[in-house]
Amino acid sequence: MTVGGGFVGANPLLRWSYLVEQWDTVQTAIVEHVQLTLAAVSIGFLISLGLAAIGLRFRWTIGPITGFSAFLYTIPSVAAFGLLRSVFGTSLLTAIIPLVGFTILILVTNILDGFRAVPAPVKAAADGMGLSPLRRVLTVETPLAVPYMINGLRIATVTTVGLVAVAAIVGFGGFGRLIFDGLNRTFWTPMTIGAIGSILLALLFDLLFFLLGSALTPWARKRPA
Amino acid sequence: MTGTLTLAQAAVPRDITLTEWLGDPDTWLGSSGILANLADTVTLCLAVILTAVIIAVPPAALLAHKRKAELASAWLVNIGRAIPTLAIAAFLVPISLRSGFGFEPWPIFIALTMMTLPPLFLSTYVAIKQVDAGAVDAARAMGFSSREVLLTVEVPLALTVIFTGIRVGAVQVVATEPIRAFLGGDGLGRYVRDGIGQNNDTLTVGGTVLIAALAGLTAIAFTVLERIVKPHGVRRLRSDARPRSTETTYEDDAPEVPEPAGGIDAATGRLR
């Protein structure tokens, strides 16, 4: 191995012309990365809402639910992708199932925290005003739990962006594909684009959810720090 | 330097069953056997965890003791979480090569350490902060210096929680380390890599089992360690002092400020 051979001249960290010539490849990577991330987080959020609803209705299930999500969360990503590949082959399921599984712990705990943080007097007041339990949950408790949900979505999305890149080991994974393509050919340009692209995407999602959070909770903005 | 991506496992036939593969001594021994790769993985993970603890825990404890940099810590953690480990490791590969450190293991070492620092910092910070205010005030009243309060009161009382943070971080490190095999290294992840590369499900599943087993063992080992390090005084305290605590409950009733709005907490509002 010629260490750093031609590193500066022929093989720079980033060859700008690649962005123009290979824009199709880059664009495909961006689209795939965003799609996989959003798909995994959306499915994960729906599942987590269901699990949280069960947990809030039947309190004794909270322990098992969070325990199981915590178990899912600690499954090594490479192991999860590898195992499912031997079951589903190169199907999309191989990539999406682990990605969804990794979001559930973060989302469920945040949703549960959100509902449990609703002050008891607020619930009593809603009951006193004659709201049915269902309306109380939907019109009083849910809005108050929104900041927690957004926070959970924010963490889950940002984490997923990083894990989507790992899904490239089973043939999916947007920027991850560029990363491994560059590594295998020791051609740094696609690798740099893949690495910086996924970092920027994570930061972008982080910012978007931060803005969404403050847009959805106008009452929290005026609170003195 | 294990930089070459040669298929040393090419000898593994595809129709071998998992028990046959795991039962074959050759699978375990030798320079590319499971034991050698396990040693590789464990060494790297231990190095990462030790480094992260040394870098993150002392400053977090000190800052929490002084109640400083609360908002900054929250932001640091948020930004740290946004950094994808694989991307960092990959980005460091050419830099490591240029600096003459080779493909491996520095990029993955640095990336894993960076991944571990923010949560470890936050859990230590919170652990010190949540120490019973009464204990701290009592120590002060008895004339303990600020340093003594931190080292002999706050740290021992927070030790269990700090170790929980270390355990979570360690499991996360072990669970993430296998991507090293896809970045030009080896370790237990190599079996998954080779299995995928050779379309050999036995290797893939075998590697998966090994990685998952190590992650599970790590969790158990650190849980045991957690019990061992708990100071004797605190151990006795736990059993009879808990109901006496006059602190208001932090649980269900107290509406805590959500993390994005109020930093780490702001709920306790303790006078210093």
CATH class of chain B: Mainly Alpha
- How far apart lie the N and C ends of chain B? 54 Å
Number of helices of chain A: 10
Tally of helical segments of chain B: 12
Number of domains of chain B: 1
Radius of gyration of chain B over alpha carbons?
Answer: 23 Å
Number of discrete domains of chain A: 1
Contiguous low-pLDDT stretches of chain A (5 residues minimum) are 1-7
What pair of chains forms the biggest interface?
Answer: A-B, 63 and 58 residues
What's the name of the CATH homologous superfamily of chain B? MetI-like
- CATH arch. level architecture of chain A: Orthogonal Bundle
Low-confidence stretches of chain B: 1-9, 239-272
Helix proportion of chain B: 55-70%
The coarse overall form of chain A would be elongated
SS content category of chain B: mainly alpha
User: Can you tell me the CATH class of chain A?
Assistant: Mainly Alpha
Please describe the biggest sheet of chain A, giving its number of strands, its sense, and whether it closes into a barrel. Answer: none
Proportion of strand residues of chain A: under 5%
Describe the protein:
- Chain A has 225 residues and is mainly α.
- Chain A contains ten helices and no strands.
- Chain A has one domain: MetI-like fold (Orthogonal Bundle), CATH 1.10.3720.
- In chain A, helix 2 runs antiparallel to helix 7.
- The longest helix of chain A is centred in the N-terminal third of the chain and has 35 residues, at 23-57.
- Chain A is elongated and about 75 Å long.
- Chain B is mostly helical and 272 residues long.
- Chain B has a single domain (42-237), classed as MetI-like fold (Orthogonal Bundle).
- In chain B, 68% of the residues lie in helices and 0% in strands.
- In chain B, helix 3 runs parallel beside helix 6, helix 3 (34-65) packs antiparallel against helix 8 and helix 5 packs across helix 6 (106-129).
- Mean pLDDT of chain B is 80; it is low at 1-9 and 239-272.
- The interface between A and B is large, with 63 and 58 residues.
